Structures are given as structure tokens and as C-alpha cells.
Amino acid sequence: MRHNKHLFLKNQILTTLKRMENRWPTLTLNVNHSPMPVEALDYHFQNQPNVYVSGDLLIYYEKGSSKKSVAPDVFVVFGVPKYDRKIYQTWAERKTPDVVIEIASPSTYKKDEKEKPELYQRLSVQEYFQYDPTGDYLPQPLRGRTLDDKGRYQDIPTETLKDGTKILTSRLLGLELRLEKYKLRVFDPLTEEYLFTYSEEADARRQAQKEAMHERKRKEWAQRDALLERQRADKELQQLAQREALLERQRAEQAQLKAEQERQRANKLAEQLRALGINLDAID
Fold first, then answer.
1. CA–CA distance from 151 to each of 2, 4, 91, 111, 130 (Å)?
2. Whole-number mean pLDDT of the chain?
3. 106: CATH
4. Among 51, 125, 133, 282, which one has the highest count of C-beta atoms within 10 angstroms of its own C-beta?
């Protein structure tokens, strides 16, 4: 019973997530918060201890120089332990990021387009993606590049769906970056579902629990109504049986009364005939 309850709640959460997909904002920058893909990707890789996901975190890439640093909006590193860091030092971690996502803004888009591709190429960042939420700063609102055999960036081909959605496939992440009307979403082709953040999953869980409670209440009310209906039907049947019994008793009493009246009439007739000297007993 407990397993069925958990399975029901899990299905409710998945259903709620799918229904709420189009209502959630995606990939918005905030000065005090990491962009949403950090949380979504971290949630996606939560069970893989050697995948580190972060964003807006200073990456120092040259030992002894505090100026040699960069802070990607989103980056993913495979092969390093998953734990919170205040800074990321490539020589200490012995690993540079594998995937970087930069989100264009008025103050960063020029560096994202010119300086950072050269830096990330030099740091052997395997995949570099750029996203322009407004479409005002970059030639393409979504662009992806991957290192070739010579260590040079080559554009990742863009696929366009019938509805106009642009798709870039990240071979390393095993995911798709999808641009839907200037909104960037991360899609898992294996599950055929969009990635969600911890907060979105929690919202969906609360919503699913609320809906499960409503469903439970609905069933309880339905059971109560069914019970009341049964009780009403039983009462009606009981009343009907009582009426039938009463009618049957009345019919029996009427039959007895009629029989008694017939007997009395017969006796009276016999007395009248005897008074006339007619003996009915002597008549064959």
C-alpha cells in the first residue's frame, strides 16, 4: 500500500511538472543569483558525484596570477568531486571546464563573442555555448561551438523544428539546448522531458501533494455519498417491505373478515330454514 502511494505521488509530480512546464521562466540572469541552468543541470547530475556544475564562480587558470580569471555564467566539469567551492583553480583541480554557457548582456556580450572563445579554446573547453535572451547583442540568439581534432572551435549545427524551435545538441552533456521564442530550455532526449530545477521540482511536489489530497478528499466524499445513497436505498427498501407486509396483513385480515361474514350469513340462513321446518342436514 505504501509503495502504491509513493508511486501515485511520483506520477502526480511528473504529470504536474509537464503541465507546469510552459509557466516557468527560463534562463534569466540576476545579480544576486545564479542563472537557472546551473540549478537545472545540477539537479540533472545530482546522482553523479564526479560532475561539478556551477556558475558566476571565478575560475583561476594561471597559478600565481590573480588577474588570470574568468567567471562563466554556467560551466560543467566532468571528473572532479561535487562539493561547494568559493573559487575554482584549474591547476588544483587538474581539470578545466568541459562545457561553458555564457549569457549575453550589455556589459559582457563583446567579450563573450571575441575574447572568451579564444580563452576557452586555449583552456580546452570542449563545448562553448552563447545565449542572447533578447536577441539584441549577438548575430545569433543561440550559438554553440565544439573543439575539433586540432583544438579549434567549430560551430555546432543548429536544427530547426517545424514550430521554429532552435536546437543545439551537447554531446558531452547528452542534452539539447532548445531556443523557444528567445527562451532557452534544456531538454533530455532520453526521457523526452525538459530539465527542472530543485525549486521547480519542489513546487511540482507540493502541487502534486495538494492535488493528491484533493483527490483523496474527492474519493472520501464520493465514498460518503455512496454510503448515504446505500443507506437511503436500504431505508427505502425497508419502508417498501414494511408497506408490503402491512398490505399483506391487511389483505389477510380482510380475507378473514370476509370468511367470517360468509360463515355468519350461512349460519343465519340455516336458522331461517330450520324455522321454516327445513332441515338442511336431511337434504341429500
1. 54, 52, 20, 20, 19
2. 83
3. 3.90.1570
4. 125
Question: Is the pLDDT score of 65 beyond 70?
Answer: yes
Q: Are 239 and 52 in contact (CB under 8 A)?
A: no
Say yes or no: 13 and 29 in one domain: no
- Grid coordinates representing 239? 419502508
Looking at 195, 227, 254, which one is the last position of a domain? 195
CA 49/CA 92 separation, integer angstroms: 18
Q: Which runs of E-coded beta strand occur in the chain?
A: 51-54, 59-60, 69-70, 74-78, 88-89, 99-103, 127-131, 142-147, 153-155, 159-160, 166-170, 175-180, 183-188, 193-194
What's the domain range around 61? 25-195
Instruction: Say yes or no: 75 and 211 in one domain.
Output: no
Q: What is the pLDDT of residues 32-55, one digit of tens each?
A: 333 468 888 998 999 999 999 999
